[in-house]
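This section describes the prediction task in plain terms. A model, or a person checking by hand, is given the sequence of a single protein chain and must write out its three-dimensional structure as a string of tokens. No templates, partner chains or ligands are provided. The sample shown here is typical of the held-out split.
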Amino acid sequence: YSKYTAGGNFTGHISKMIAGFQEKQKQVAEAIVKGDFKSFLDIGTSEGGMIKTVASQDKNMVAVGVDPNLEMQKNFNSTPKVPNAEYRLEAFQGSWTEDDGTIIEEFKTEQKFDVVNEDFTFQFVNNNRAKQVAGVKELMSKDGIFITSEKFHTANEAANEAKKYDHQRKYFSPDQLTED
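The expected answer:
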């Protein structure tokens, strides 16, 4: 997994912000490979480390990552090439024109995927989970699975936040930490 995350640019940062994130990613990738699935879509793929990790271990896997961020695509292109891993500079359920004139198209495909993954992406898009999940279902094969990660506010939120800050203090000075 580390081989395909551009030296830890964004993925490394998230791993420092969210305890267990990188370990979870590795376990999900391993489960996808062991599951003998044939197609994998990663929504909000960032650097594409997940699709390259999965695709590099199964040459028959079709792995597609979708992310509208050009810098993330540059990171994807800077890591070792995996022929069956494709990065699409597109957005899930949206399109727009960037200030520099770059047009970000909405991701559309007739392909159905055995596995669809999304890690904390939806919360940065909008709060319409019903629409997002319906969109994912349209992309899934008949027996496909959906893997998602999201931060929830629960009764033990204060304790969880304290653990999060303990983890972050290992990597950041107090002036670098802000509440999110």
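For orientation: The mean pLDDT is 88.
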